[in-house]
DNA sequence: CGATTCCTTGAGTCCGTTCAAAGCCCGTGG
DNA sequence: CCACGGGCTTTGAACGGACTCAAGGAATCG
């Protein structure tokens, strides 16, 4: 247990965190329910809601986003199975969360009581999730601030394929082009054009079903303009 | 102690974290040193370095950034006194950290030993810092993905004035225009033009010393295109 | 007081947007 | 089984905001 926490670089004692009940049954329970199933496109919580709970994705895909008063939208992240979202520093949520596909969620209460039970697994997950989220946010800020439309699509496809542990070349994109656009800081039209361009270049193939993509050359997609640092591949 | 942690919405038991020594003396110590002073523009750590330590800003300003192989740079955050930076999910740093101004830092070892001593204050700070960092990252992604140059500058000035708890209207910007550009996803020229535009509009004033700004109308600066959600001001 | 560096300004270009329309899936119902 | 309808996606043409390239100005430092 200690080693696990140490692995994410934080004190082993963190493992004592509990306070959030460990789910027991795989299906929804009476009292409040530890699980929740949300239909595609339904809201999970809204910006401004009291942040009394947070969630872990069991299956499906969730998006968290912010809106400006004039309707502009920024999807800050897509959450895949295993990901934790909805944790806030303050008392209220600061993003909207919606199901992209039908999603099964594990719900955790944020309140201080109910410490008992947990063996620290969840605590470790939470910390790891926060750090991972920050890391993804940093990468995404680089994408939003400095990459071209073509690079954004290429990076997105590669990143998503890695996150879904997609082994082959075919991959399903659960979200619409509009969602991709609002995640990548582009318009739908630009997304479409960039995707088409990658297809013409032979890096990807686009089956009739537009939610599918075939990554024909992952290496080329990944090596658009490489990052410096750790995994620098020269 | 428990209440403090609960305030950030995480289990009180987190407070038991320690593992990172609490600094004792306000000046540099022999063994490894708990404090470190870095001259302006000097590197603190680089992308790819082993992430054996993390830091808290005592005074001065620090920037963390990523680079692409072709030189494009994205500053993901400026860290002000009290902020914690350099915590990583993995074994290596994934950003570069440099001092913007001369900076005094508190250095914490990440290793699992040395649990003793801390009363949980640091643990709470770490968690709060991670959540705060994530929140700022979300806001910044909205800025990078969806806001115009003028809006980016306005948002940046307001956000920075709030973070520095700048009470009056005059504010010092410790970073160069280039740093602002690389933080806001713009070019230096665009930053300069947008700043000039805000001045012409009377929202700000620009003293001869270009590192200074006078926020003549914070309300107008803040209300560019307002966020929805929690603090919605209609 | 000169030199360097940073910041600003100008002119022209380009990428992504906007506006508009057509194409394609897919579900529905005849 | 196929025609129809609606939403999503793609494509086209023109526009515009930020970028690039290039110079000029201002402040700071030696």
UniProtKB/TrEMBL annotation, chains A, B:
SUPFAM superfamilies, alphabetized: cAMP-binding domain-like, Winged helix' DNA-binding domain
PROSITE patterns: CNMP_BINDING_3 (PS50042), HTH_CRP_2 (PS51063)
Coiled coil feature spans: none
Entry keyword set: DNA-binding, Transcription, Transcription regulation
Domain Cyclic nucleotide-binding: start-end pairs: 36-86
CDD domains for the chain: CAP_ED, HTH_CRP
InterPro entries assigned to the protein according to its UniProt record, in alphabetical order: cNMP-bd_dom, cNMP-bd_dom_sf, Env_Response_Regulators, HTH_CRP, RmlC-like_jellyroll, WH-like_DNA-bd_sf, WH_DNA-bd_sf
Stored Pfam families: cNMP_binding, HTH_Crp_2
HTH crp-type domain ranges (all copies): 147-219
UniProt protein name: Helix-turn-helix domain-containing protein
């Amino acid at each position: 247990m200690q080693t696990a926490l140490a692995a994410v670089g934080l004190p082993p004692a963190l493992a004592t965190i509990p306070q959030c009940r460990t789910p027991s049954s795989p299906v929804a329970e009476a009292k409040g329910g530890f699980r929740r199933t949300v239909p595609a496109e339904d809201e999970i919580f809204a910006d401004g809601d009291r942040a009394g709970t947070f969630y872990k994705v069991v299956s499906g895909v969730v998006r968290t986003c912010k809106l400006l008063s004039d309707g502009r939208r920024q999807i800050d992240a897509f959450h895949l199975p295993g990901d934790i979202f909805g944790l806030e520093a303050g008392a209220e949520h600061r993003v909207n969360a919606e199901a992209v596909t039908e999603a099964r969620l594990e719900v955790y209460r944020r309140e201080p009581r109910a410490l008992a039970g947990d063996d620290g697994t969840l605590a470790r997950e939470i910390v790891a999730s926060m750090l991972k989220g920050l890391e993804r946010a940093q990468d995404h800020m680089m994408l939003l601030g400095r990459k071209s439309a073509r690079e954004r699509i290429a990076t997105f496809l590669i990143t998503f394929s890695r996150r879904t542990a997609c082994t082959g070349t075919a991959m399903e994109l659960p979200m619409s082009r509009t969602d991709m656009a609002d995640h990548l800081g582009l318009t739908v039209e630009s997304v479409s054009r960039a995707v088409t361009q990658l297809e013409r270049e032979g890096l990807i193939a686009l089956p009739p079903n537009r939610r599918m993509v075939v990554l024909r050359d992952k290496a080329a997609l990944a090596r658009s303009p490489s990052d410096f640092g750790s995994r620098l591949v020269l």
